[in-house]
Amino acid sequence: MQTYLEFEKDLADLEGKAAELRAMARKGGGVDVEGEAKLLDGKAAAMLADLYANLDPWRKCLVARHPDRPHAIDYIDALFDEFTPLAGDRNFAEDAAVIGGLARLDDQAVMVIGQEKGNDTKSRIERNFGMARPEGYRKAARLLALADRFGVPVVTLIDTPGAYPGKGAEERGQAEAIARSTEMCLRLGAPLVSVVIGEGGSGGAVALAAGDRVVMLEHSIYSVITPEGCASILWKNAEKMREAAAALRLTAQDLRKLGVVDRIVKEPVGGAQRDRAATIRAVGEAISQELASLSKKSPAELRAARRRRFLEMGDATLA
Asked: How many domains are contained in the chain?
């Protein structure tokens, strides 16, 4: 069943009416309603295209958070063969918000690491809504080190509101764990391609996205803070999140212009949730192409280019 966002109310009405007409026809009565239903379908399709061609930054946030978008585990299941999950940080615990392990992509060994939000109440609680604790980032750093040791390319799938800010996480060194994971990304001697598939929130996202190539889905977001958090700090009012979303320049299109991301993967009309399979295929093609473009570089060349990329980013964003 389709889940509609707040700005899709009129679209929901149109699609609902078309569905009702077809349901009436199935029950019998001898009334031919297919022509009218197709007319409503056409109006709904036009409305959908218009809505998604003119999304403002706040609406982009809503789409990026849509519960029906494909999550990391969906991409792993569809794109990677022989996935062997690796668990635990060898220090404190396993963190279900971060999943990772060795796999094959196009018959090439890779390390894939993703942030997983869960897809129902039980799994969302288990995975802490994609907000990793220190042990999640320490696990990621461990897997990055393993990939570095064997020269295995890394793919990271970014989808988190941010790192978990709870007292226990801070007591166990959340900031240090994020810094270690970011450091491992920068030190990696193998190619690293990061894809923002939903939300890229704050240091919790950067910890897995400091790579050679950063790819974003068309309606994903990537920012230093959530719009609600920014509004609460700047205006002391979380209801100012629309203004904050515009000011943060968090859309894929803005970040591509600023040089923060390298590539935007187009989503189906209506967002990734409207055609999950097509979205996953497009992301898979982008990952394969980016890895191929990096495959000829030596570890020293990769590290030097990555270092240069992030040192020069401030100049690009200020231009």
From this structure: 2
